[in-house]
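Researcher: Here's my situation. A collaborator sent me these components and asked whether they could plausibly form a single complex. I don't have experimental data yet, so a predicted model of the whole assembly would be a useful starting point for our discussion.
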Amino acid sequence: MSATATRTTVRPPLAAEHRRGDPARDFPLTLRGVSKRWSKKQAPVLDEVELTLDLGTSTWIGGRNGTGKTTLLRIAAGLIEPDRGRAAVWGYTPRENRGRYQRLVSFLPAGDRGLYARLTVRRQLGFWARIALIPGSEIDARVEAALDAFAMGELADRRVDRMSMGQRQRLRIAMTFMTEPEVVLLDEPLTSLDADGAEILDRAIDGLLARHGVLLWCSPSGEELAREFDARWLLERGRLVAP
Amino acid sequence: MSGPRASARAFLAVLRRDLSVYLSYRFRLASQLLTAVFSLTLFYYVSRLVHVSGFPSPESYFAFVVVGIALVSVLYSCFSVAELVRQELVAGTFERLMLSPFGPVRSLVAMSLFPLLYSFVLAALTLGIGWALFGLQLHWSTVPLSVPAMGLALLAFIPFGLIFAALTISTKQGSVGTSWVIALISIVGGLYFPVSLLPGWAQTAAELQPFTPATEVLRHLLVNSPQETTIATALAKLTGFAAVLLPLSLFGLQRAIRFGQRRGTIIEY
């Protein structure tokens, strides 16, 4: 099963630079024959998964708990390696082009982890901007823009361990988008978000798609999603199937 | 976008982060200084109670051991990066480092700097307390030279932390072995007594790690202790250890990360 999401025909200059007339390298995100097995005695959690996402498209992948959605996202993010197959962004792989790959991709893991409890929101964003190797002249502006876009101005000087779960999730989402990635991978992003938070997330995604970025959203089947996606898939027995 | 300046900023960001987290615990420095005062008090009276062969006076042994006590904090800080990795894995922040363009290897090297720099400050304060409260005779003319010597020692010490960080990443148990390794090094490194008092096999072990030459050099520069080897030899040993161990530890760290990525357990603890 080869899953493809295609919508846009307009290509921005940045994306056009990536295109090299090579089908294997001409898409923002491709997963080719991705397989992963946690134990030889168990069935593979991912079995020859094929997925291609084109410019400016959003894709949802659902499935029951434990079907491999998070594993798929972790492989797409370059966090773990598949047993077979590969993930690529514009043909760049996390193994061969780690730095470039991580500049193009941003991943929001599920849960509420990944924050330094004793740092303030502003410090957290500043730290992330710096290890994302954002140019020094842009860092302050990016931090302020993130505080503004994700309605965290009043929380800027508050330590993370003194924030609610929903506020923390908003911060995690801000960190995901503040580097202006081309590919955004979201794992259960609505966790702990209130209606305002969900609306802010929606706006961030609209902004991503408007600049021809790519969205891959994973969440369990049954979760109510107000958002329209260009493609929807279910992950069942290690493969992507139409819902 | 990712030139040396951006990497330097990321390095400093890690240092600043660690400083911010440290400063959020208000009583840590006071607590550690109290520990130093009690240790110095203990050895001050031990030096007066027991005649130690090879030392002409109680003051000379006290000066010898104060430098050792100051370096114990440096020794502990070398291995603390393994514990820091464990904390990052538990908090899920290691995942952020993995996903950053700065990357996990450079992040871990940067993470090892704050504990070492902090331990240097703590070591200086310990010496200052020894001088102010217990009459420690510092050899002021060569004290400034201890700073570059410490810098060289740092390059030789960092690999130990990185190796244990690699063990933590690959086995999730790396920090478990640090306590006995620290105890062993504090014996064979000559922190509390001269290496020459040890049996032959232990003296051989003393030659196999950089803490012994670092302690010798710093003792000579700080309190003018007599040398068992020349300064030049000790500095050459430190340079050699740094030149061999740094690339090896970085290679080991890269392999451990790759191993975790293949197994899919890189961010688990």
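Model: Some features of this prediction you could bring to your collaborator: Chain B touches chain A through 34 residues (CB under 8 Å). The first helix of chain B runs from residue 4 to 23.
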